[in-house]
């Protein structure tokens, strides 16, 4: 098994797909390595690419707002992405890019062993929960698989585009908090 630092080095020097030629920085996940809750989004955005840190742009501020609505902070959770490099023009990651990158997420999961995995948005939910997952209808629902509790919430960027849905997302975060309490995680 690798340490987080070793994994970060692999991610930083990765050339498994063509995104390595356009990235400024790859973006390894961050947060507590003892976290019971792992959040998984799709891919770093432009500001994340500049800084090498997940969710530091406007979507990151929205994410922090949702965390703080249930009295959580980033140092109590772990947050990462399905792919670790920014796709140009923030397009959806391709199947090839996801396939090339998914082992890093598997190793992060083995290292952290979260009890709850929360997908942020459709792309992550369709990769982690089910290929036909409908984020608009099914966010906030729970699936137990191989000892992990899986759920999905609306992507923070979607909430920036449509703030009328923030209340729904806050409700989902309350349920995540509740599930964490039931599982004695926090
Ligand atoms: N959007 C994502 O999906 N991931 C990030 O890290 C930032 C924005």
Automatic annotation (TrEMBL):
Domain Uracil-DNA glycosylase-like: 28-174
Cited Gene3D superfamilies: Uracil-DNA glycosylase-like domain
Keywords: 4Fe-4S, DNA damage, DNA repair, Hydrolase, Iron, Iron-sulfur, Metal-binding
GO biological process, one term: DNA repair
Catalysed reactions, as listed in the record: Hydrolyzes single-stranded DNA or mismatched double-stranded DNA and polynucleotides, releasing free uracil
One Pfam family, short name: UDG
E.C. number(s) listed in UniProt: 3.2.2.27
Enzyme class: hydrolase
Stated name of the protein: Type-4 uracil-DNA glycosylase
Organism: Candidatus Lachnoclostridium pullistercoris
